[in-house]
Amino acid sequence: MTRWEGRHVVVGVSGGIACYKSCILVRRLAEAGAQVHVILTEGAAEFVRPLTFEALSGRPVLTSLWTRDAALQHVRLAQAADVIIVAPATAHLIARVAQGLGDDLLTTLLLARIAPVLLAPAMNDEMYANPATRANLATLAGRGFAFVGPEAGALAEGPSDRPGRMSEPETILAHAARLVGSGGPLAGRRVVVTAGPTREGLDPVRVVTNRSSGKMGFRLAEAAWERGAEVTLITGPVSLPAPVGVSVVAVETTAQMEAAVGTALPEADLLIMAAAPADYRPAETAGAKRPRQEGPLTVALEPTDDILRRTAGLRKPGSVIVGFALETGDAVTKGRAKLARKQLDLIVVNDALEPGAAFEVDTNRVVILDREGGERVVPLASKRVVADAILDSVEPRLGR
Ligand code: CTP
Fold first, then answer.
1. Which of 14, 53, 148, 323 suits a disulfide with 93, CB 3.0-4.6 Å?
2. Nearest to 171 by CA among 238, 222, 111
């Protein structure tokens, strides 16, 4: 989200019922620090009054070409914008843009723009399937316009299993961030992130696992995708929604995670092992549920394999490998030893005993150590901010 600070974002809104979601989109952008300029078509202003968008964006909303200054202002905006998002983009708006019309403020701005444009189509499913709409979309795709959605689901007329519904604001935001970040050091790079715990069966019902929530790895995958990378997220059992754009490989055991890492690693420019794979598994997994018994139960555990060590030979030459170390006390010294032992480029160290850090919470406080002896402290922050700090440390090492 830090990418939005000070960015000029034009949000064009055309007239469809999905306009209500554009209010949330504008709010999220403003919260993230973007300078948001909202332009409404005549139809959009019938659905949501300009005042709503003015309050959410904190600046005047433009609706007509025919006011003083508007003609100049839209050209200035078209040149200053870092990205233009049109949400919702109705069938009619898409048709006008494909034709190259400039019959209102929004279409004129789109003719004069230099910035990338993201269209979030929203319409009835039949309209979206109509050959006229398909042809207009193909024309715009050929001119470099980017799209997000539409998705299947509830339409104004009722549920549909065919696309038509506008994507959710969070999804649109992630796609817009990727457009802004495109051309950065992660554009076109393949990134593999592991996340979450693994789970080793004692019997078909009971497992040995740990308290990793997967949040740090999921935020890393999301941040890397927004920076333009192709991202594979290999995750143990967690209850988090898949980040936009990322391919997710779900695994259960440490051995399965090792196999998935082994498959992805030869092509990867960057591996970030944020997972907490179980270090031990029951020596025997019972085929049926073990009955409760009188007296204590002793279970023999055997070590699992170390994924980083076992897959070291599969690394692509020049790739960057990042590990994590969760310690309880003396974290930096232990982290440094782990960095060397696991042949890592960077290690992200945190201390489970510190409040606000490590498992299950939304924040983290880490120290990033590199193999040259460098040390960077990232103060307590959201896991997304920590993810961006980690990628900032990684990026200069890629392509060396
Ligand atoms: N890791 C791994 N394979 C495992 C266990 C851990 O690849 N079976 C990775 C983790 O994803 C992390 C790094 O190794 O990036 C360090 O994990 P950690 O659990 O701190 O290290 P261990 O080697 O298990 O050391 P210890 O438990 O003794 O501290």
1. 14
2. 222
